[in-house]
Amino acid sequence: MEKSIILLRGDGIGPEIVDGAVTVLKKVEAKYGHTFRIQPELLGGASIDDCGKPLTEETVTACKQADAVLLGAVGGPKWDAISVENRPERGLLGIRSALGLYANLRPAYLYKELADACPIKEERVRGGIDLMMVRELTGGIYFGKRKTVTRENGKKTAVDRMEYSEEEIERIGIIGFEQAMMRRKKLVSVDKANVLDTSRLWRSVMHRLSEQYPQVEYRDQLVDSAAMQLVSDPGQFDVIVTENMFGDILSDEASMAAGSIGMLPSASLGDGTRGLYEPIHGSAPDIAGQDAANPLATILSAAMMLRISFGMEEEAAAVESAVQSALTKGFRTRDIAAPGQAVVGCREMAKVVADAV
Ligand code: IPM
Ligand code: MG
User: Fold this and answer.
1) pLDDT along the chain (357 residues), means of 10
2) Active site residue 155
3) What single string gives the DSSP state of each residue in 63-101?
């Protein structure tokens, strides 16, 4: 098969981890006889430096014409002083929105080999952790009107608006239920219905949908309680569906249950098969350029791309078992190494995985 992939390497460790995933994709190409037409475009700080803004029309057009987009991470201290409307992160939100990618799938899985890297007590994770966070990605407070005004007394007031329509809730709710149907058929919808109107609407739409999925064991949970349960008993969760900001926060929390934020991939999807695939972690400017980053979240994101956008189930499974085998053989980047354990760099980890495909 021939497929086109846009690479948005971004900033910080972004280029290193994306290149690691490309090493693995090249092996898949050779082994399975595919052709991946890979083209880099700019996003985030790299785009600000080159074109004066975090997302250009050229990048949007290239992504719209591609079969999939593989993204590293954006942002860093270099661009911290820029106004919120022009920061690197704005480019990321812009491309998610321009491609209509309202559904963000973030699986958190604890590999047995990484039990030592998981900061949660062993007896609380003994049963394993295998959950899917379904995060709404193009609505809510991330995309509501925001402004900062200076009042008459010289003090400022800032406003960020959170808004959800029934249609937006329904389409992400359906993804949540469908994911549950493909997995262990348990869905928790996370909201703050004891305070927020958006959450009360969210809950009513979810209840309506739950009648259409009688096979799915459904419950609502308040976000504060879900945050607590994610560290006290993470194994109870199968699929969690939630709004944009709650999903951002809870997915970082869930990544700790999986041992390291360097392990969590994600897929951002809209109505078609085109998707954007990225690790859930950030650009880690403190370790950028040192060959110290963990490429596994990006490699696992590439596996999701093979499966979801290209329908290459066998190839995706081969990449996932190659990751498993690298861990079984004891290869560890710094973030997932136990004290005293030998550590490999980003490039070597990618090569080990590619060789195992
Ligand atoms: C994520 C990141 C982004 C988000 C940032 C970089 C804008 O934290 O993908 O989780 O908040 O969505
Ligand atoms: Mg985040």
Assistant:
1) 98 98 98 98 98 97 98 97 92 98 97 90 91 98 96 97 98 98 98 98 98 98 98 96 98 91 96 96 97 98 98 98 97 93 96 98
2) no
3) HHHSSEEEEEE---GGGTTS-GGGSHHHHHHHHHHHTT-
Name the residue at shortest CA distance from atom 4 of ligand 1.
248
The values of phi and psi at residue 119, to 5°, are: -75, -5
**Ligand 1: residue whose CA is nearest its atom 5:** 89
* Domains within the chain, CATH numbers bracketed: 1-107+261-357 (3.40.718.10), 119-257 (3.40.718.10)
Q: Which of 102, 109, 142, 277 is catalytic?
A: 142
Q: DSSP label at 337?
A: P
65 neighbors 37 (Cβ within 8 angstroms): no
Specify the residue for token string 């985030």. Answer: 44
Task: Please give the model's pTM, rounded to 2 decimal places.
Answer: 0.96
Closest among 32, 14, 4 to 316, alpha carbons compared: 32
User: Which two tokens mark 39?
Assistant: 């083209």
For residue 137, what are its two tokens?
């990605």
- Dihedral sign (CA 111, 115, 120, 121): positive
C-alpha to C-alpha distance for 113 and 65, rounded to whole angstroms:
40
